[in-house]
Structure to design on (287 residues):
């Protein structure tokens, strides 16, 4: 890769990955998709903060190239896989300081579950060495201490399967787990959003009744109606959405988010999907 005449080698990228900096996005510490579609724009400032005066070129390469370009190429490789690769590289190099802890925490945020991390480090141990794996396991146990061996996302009801049927109406990846048979009773679904994921603006139409109820069960997210300020959501919050109201909802930039979506009975009900929530709109919300 070339940047202003400089050749950035793979070994240089690996060295910078080991520096243990903080991943930020356009809105500070955030994750959102750019206008090109499907890419999570990662903005980094830790290099300039720590080394801007002493080594400005290194700080530029760390912030703008490694994170601003390489980590942001999520249309080619998702953040979860990039976290897996980075943790594997650090453990293989025997780097088990605060930089590894940071990337373990990032891996957890990017969807690597406790079970997956344990299996990954077990596998890596045969190639990177038993002592390196032992050191990594000690740190991983701290990072995943609260997960109790279960999947890290989706809350009590579980994350479900990739929401491929409605993917075109979402920015980022979402997951869907039906809890009832909507053909027989009220439709209830557990919807899980990865960090930065949100659905498009949309409206639930109905001649009578209709609308939707959201019951927040895990993580933190946003709900916003057109013309109103966004509402921060946490587990236990309930949102009643009347029919005919333009709105959107999704995860905060730095958190996974799950809510139950309850379809309210009505006559002549339908959903109208509208424009995406832009990065500019979403970026103003922060964490």
């Amino acid at each position: 890769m070339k940047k202003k005449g400089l050749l950035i080698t793979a070994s240089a990228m690996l060295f910078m990955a080991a520096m243990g900096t903080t991943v930020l996005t356009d809105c500070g510490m955030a994750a959102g998709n750019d206008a090109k579609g499907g890419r999570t724009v990662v903005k980094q400032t830790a290099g300039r903060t720590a080394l801007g005066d002493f080594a400005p070129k290194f700080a530029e390469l760390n912030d703008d190239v490694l994170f601003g370009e390489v980590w942001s190429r999520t249309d080619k490789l998702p953040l979860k896989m990039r976290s897996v690769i980075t943790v594997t590289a650090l453990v293989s190099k025997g780097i088990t300081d605060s930089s590894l802890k940071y990337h373990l925490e990032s891996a957890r945020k990017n969807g690597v579950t406790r079970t997956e991390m344990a299996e990954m480090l077990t596998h890596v141990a045969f190639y990177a060495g038993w002592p390196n794996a032992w050191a990594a396991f000690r740190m991983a146990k701290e990072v995943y201490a609260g997960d109790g061996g279960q999947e890290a996302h989706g809350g009590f009801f579980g994350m479900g399967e990739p929401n491929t049927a409605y993917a075109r109406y979402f920015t980022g990846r979402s997951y869907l787990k039906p809890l009832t048979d909507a053909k027989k009773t009220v439709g209830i679904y557990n919807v899980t959003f990865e960090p930065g994921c949100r659905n498009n603006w949309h409206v639930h139409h109905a001649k009578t009744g209709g609308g939707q109820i959201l019951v927040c069960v895990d993580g933190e997210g946003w709900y916003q109606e057109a013309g109103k300020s966004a509402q921060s959501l946490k587990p236990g919050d309930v949102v009643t959405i009347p029919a005919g109201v333009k709105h959107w909802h999704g995860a905060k930039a730095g958190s996974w988010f799950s809510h139950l979506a309850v379809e309210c009975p009505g006559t002549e009900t339908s959903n109208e999907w509208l424009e995406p929530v832009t990065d500019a709109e979403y970026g103003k919300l922060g964490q």
Summary: The longest helix spans residues 56-71.
